[in-house]
Amino acid sequence: MNIHEFQGKELLKRYGVAVLDGYVASTPEEAEEGAKKLPGPIYVVKSQIHAGGRGAGRFKDDPNGKGGVRLAKSVEEVKTNAAAMLGHVLVTKQTGPEGKQVNRLYIEAGCDIARELYVALLLDRETSRVVIMASTEGGMEIEEVAEHNPEKILKVHVDPATGVSGYHGRKLAFGLGLEGKQVNSFVKFVTALYQAYVELECAIVEINPLVVTKQGDVVALDAKVSFDDNALFRHKDLEALRDDTEMDPKELDAAKFELNYVALDGEIGCMVNGAGLAMSTMDIIKLYGSSPANFLDVGGTADAARVTEAFRIITSDPNVKAILVNIFGGIAKCDMIANGIVVASKNLDLQVPLVVRLEGTNVELGKKILAESGLKIIPADNLADAAQKVVAAVKGA
User: Fold this and answer.
1) Fold for the domain defined by 21-109
2) Which residues of 23-34 are buried (b: 16+ CB within 10 A; e: fewer)?
3) In the annotation, is 23 catalytic?
4) Binding site as annotated, residues for Mg(2+)
5) Which positions in this protein are listed as binding ATP (predicted)?
6) CA atoms of 82 and 79, how far apart (whole Å)
């Protein structure tokens, strides 16, 4: 689960992470009032959407204008910028061409920036430890740094038995070229960040940029915080921070039926049981010349009702030109899935080509149900055969 920058900063501040003062606003008047509470004379007006690259982004109705993060030199200018940003659609590298509407702003105090750095915490699955990453290339996309200058990314792993220590912070601080007061500030910052990461059961905490001020302080200028969904039942207060307006309506609908759905920009709808099999299915669709419209894992306990909901969500995407069902029957037996497919196809009056590949428990019975259904279902013998047939259906072959 992702949250907004202002929410992440509020949480991190509780753990002693240094952040700048700021106020949330949903109207130009609230933005003006927030600015009046800050010392000035420089203010920063930040769009609050679940996407990075806001500063370099552009608004749809003003593509040649300013981005989603703007400097203001007066309270009046804060209000003017707020009016130009709220209710408008911001397009960034991470939103896609459709962009996201800005419903909230964060009005933040300015600061004297001497350097911009990068720091992040996440789980390294190879070592089963939290890794703290840092780089001198703050303000840049870390993926680009990793590709072109991997030597500029520093890493330390934290043993969960002993936790973070001053050693971890100092090693990174010296690697970043910090000195004097800056080292102590950085060590304190990283220690607090680690505590927040562990206690809040985060998936990632990313500070980009982390700034060193001219006074030698280390401060989070931005904050990207996301949580492990599997741990949210222990954190009802965090779950309350979810912003449904930032989610794809189809993804929100899928969550109600315990379906793991992620919308993509392709043309072939996918319904698969098992995350690994779903990823393989998407890969092989790409291999044979098309692209998936979604990731959808119906889980191991899928029944007719869940299959029907899965089809309804898939077909609600106007870009879907064909559907590929790839099921390996186990707990969810092939005959049960087949019955669900038949019921869903009839109830929804399915109009796009449907390719089905079944394997596993009761597979022959499942295939018989599909063959005798009277529906125009295209059977497939294996995953490669299924992918070829669904791509051919999309291309009109």
Assistant:
1) Dna Ligase; domain 1 (3.30.1490)
2) bbbeebebbbbb
3) no
4) 208, 222
5) 46, 53-55, 108, 111, 116
6) 5
